Amino acid sequence: MPPALRGRLGTIAVLAALVVAALGVLYAGDSEPGGADARIVTAVYGVGPSWRHVALALDFLGEPVGSAALVTAVVTGCLLLRRPRTAVLVVAGAGLAVGTATLLKSLVGRTIHGDNLSYPSGHTAFATTLALAMALAAAGRPGLGRPAGTSLVLAAALAAGAAMGWAEVALGAHYPTDVLGGWCTALAVVPTTAWLVDRAADRVADRRRPHGRAADAGRRERR
User: Fold this and answer.
1) pLDDT tens-place string over residues 55-71
2) 153 in Cβ contact with 5 (< 8 Å)
3) Residue 30 to residues 23, 116, 125, 135, 175: CA-CA distances in angstroms?
4) Residue 193 burial by CB count (10 A; 0-12/13-18/19+): exposed, middle or buried?
5) Is there a contact between 195 and 8 (Cβ–Cβ < 8 Å)?
6) What is the Cα 116 distance to its own chain's centre?
7) N or C terminus: which one in the chain shows less Cβ crowding within 10 Å?
């Protein structure tokens, strides 16, 4: 994560976590759409055949086979571009975001179409996570200031979340508030994961430097 963005993204992560918690409490154990859900679903659900194919294609990218293929492609690209931290963030971030969404589904207990747990949307969390990871890598390029970097990261997250969220609502797989919860889950998880990846990578790099080895040797001697 670019150091200049840590403060802002940290604040966003906290706010996103609060939104996830608030919506989870509001819709805990529910099986019906809320007022806002009903209005949005009326406008989005039941798209034509052409757009349905687009929605199904996007939905596939969030399924196990599609997501595994997408993560593999992105990680391969990161390694070819010598961006190992981004590769680790993609794998760890996607795993933690989807894992968090899965855990929250069991805790919240909101359902759709019978007993299908729906809050938050794991598909939306996954798509947003990938977009955030790649946007963070791009935001770290020299010459890109804090406002531009923040705008890039948020725009990427919004675009990916909106695309996958639209697909999930159009296909009737999720309520709109499920999508919002999935989007905010990624916004809460990814910055935290990126910070942890940076800390771990910096520690490994410090240990590999000569002064790091000397410091370690000095500490061993003092013991």
Assistant:
1) 999 999 999 999 999 99
2) yes
3) 11, 12, 21, 35, 11
4) buried
5) no
6) 22
7) C
Q: Residue holding tokens 């969390």?
A: 125
The string of DSSP letters for the chain reads --GGGHHHHHHHHHHHHHHHHHHHHHTTT--S--HHHHHHHHHHSS--HHHHHHHHHHHHTTSHHHHHHHHHHHHHHHHHTT-HHHHHHHHHHHHHHHHHHHHHHHHH--EETTTEE-SS-HHHHHHHHHHHHHHHHHHTSTT--HHHHHHHHHHHHHHHHHHHHHHHHHTTSS-HHHHHHHHHHHHHHHHHHHHHHHHHHHHHHHHHSHHHHHHHHHHHHH-
Flag whether pLDDT at 223 surpasses 50: no
Question: Quick one: pLDDT at residue 57?
Answer: 96
Do residues 83 and 139 touch, judged by C-beta distance below 8 A?
no
Q: What is the pTM of this model?
A: 0.89
